[in-house]
Amino acid sequence: MALFGGLLRFIRLGTPHAIVFDETYYVKDSWAMLQTGEPRNWPKTLSPGNIPIDQAFAQGNVNQWLNSAEYVVHPPVGKWCIALGLKLFGGAENPFAWRAATALAGTIAILLLCRVALRLFRNLPIAMMAGFLMSIDGLGIVMSRTSLLDNFLMIFALAAFLCLLGHRDWARARLRASWRVDWRIEKIHYRVRTAIPWLTEEMDEDNKALYTDTTGPFIAWSWWRTWAAIFLGLATGTKWSGAYLFAAFALISVIWDAWERHKVGYGGWFKAGIFKDGIPAALVMIPIWAGTYLASWTGWFRHDDSYMHGWAASHPGQGLTWLPEGLRSLVEYHREMWRFHTTLDAAHPYMSSPLTWPLQTRPTSFYWQKLTDHPGLCAISPDSPCVVAVTSLGNPLIWWLGSICIVLGIGLCLRADRSDWRLWATMAGLIGGWLPWYQYLNRTTFTFYSIIILPWMVLGICYMANWARHNISRTLYRQMMWTTLIIIGLTSLFFYPLWTAMPVPYWFWRIHMWLPSWI
């Protein structure tokens, strides 16, 4: 599945040979970081001819950054990932290199999602279905073929989630193994007390080792959780929304541990969940997460001309004066970034409310051009205008079906089995990656931000498919699955030209606009 999805992402990756949408920030910044260590300002135009800088950059004039540091509003991890792609695949003169890192991230995400689905449902066909849906979704394809930050946020979050599933399996096995040992000790103790009552008091005082720890073993720390904290630190170092994912994933993981104590049979599971799982886990994960995030700013610390690097020196007695100058300057820089993110309300023709993201009602047009000739599919209709588009629209059937399946899954659990931990796994990405945006409904946001929840929309479909596998006949299940996958696959084939900048007749582009809000 990863190989198949990789082909959809890497073939013609350098097309269009132009800076697409917000690539204007991230490609140029990443190139400047690779050359100088920090983002730099760029002129708006180049002389002679007042050529726009994006056009000049795409034509190969890539070294025109200014000496002044640029005010950037996202942490640097994602841009360093893009810079690595530029380094490995030919530099900024090659559009393939601009997007190589995001395409690789999107491809690896398919493999990670297959592993997540396999751990959740223990069924290879369902895991393959998850990978297939991830491979052919339009938002996943477009975001892998465009050099933006959100794909890195998604893959780091998915990697962290897979690690937390690994921790759950490890903790579950440890709890059950310890329970078997504890049960044997209690059984011996009971038999001795029954056969020789006069020894009871002596055993209570002198043989306390026979008593079991009724709350179970210590499972708050594992290497799985360590790696999860690192990946979530990298996610936060890509975009601050990774902090919400850290909070949601860590909380859900602790709840899984506490509930597993309860299921195995240990007493005091709720209290143990707080004091034996939650607090110790926080004491381990928060420093690792925060340390990883802080380490991502190493380049900023190393360069004295970084943006606001000298703020503390020029503002003595201001800010958090108990911090060293470097950290004090970084904190003030973060305050500037926070003000930007919380007050951004400028109108944009493609802005969309987070409420609509699962339904993909307002996709973002990344690129749209009319051509004077008729290459590619335009040759089939020489009398029609020829256009090239990149539209960040998910496969509507995947997103609409995923939304329905998540609602149905919640209904099933509330009605039947409220303890199904897999539902919370399915909801985890939505809780951490979508719900926090509800506090910013007045902020300028875009549908392509929803790439972070795509894996969990797919898992919602897988959850209901797994339910159907156990509750309907095998014949009906197979017919339903194959029919659904074929229809979804044909829909992706239909939209693929609009996701990958293929020249198409205007009427062909127009028939893809199923909703007026898609235009």
UniProtKB/TrEMBL annotation:
It is a multi-pass membrane protein. Residues 90-180 form the ArnT-like N-terminal domain. It is found in: Cell membrane; Endomembrane system. This is Polyprenol-phosphate-mannose--protein mannosyltransferase. The chain crosses the membrane at residues 96-117, 124-142, 148-166, 218-236, 242-259, 279-300, 397-414, 421-440, 446-468, 480-499. It comes from Bifidobacterium [indicum] DSM 20214 = LMG 11587. Keywords: Cell membrane, Glycosyltransferase, Membrane, Transferase, Transmembrane, Transmembrane helix. Pathway: Protein modification; protein glycosylation. Residues 328-518 form the Protein O-mannosyl-transferase C-terminal four TM domain. InterPro entries: ArnT-like_N, PMT-like, PMT_4TMC.
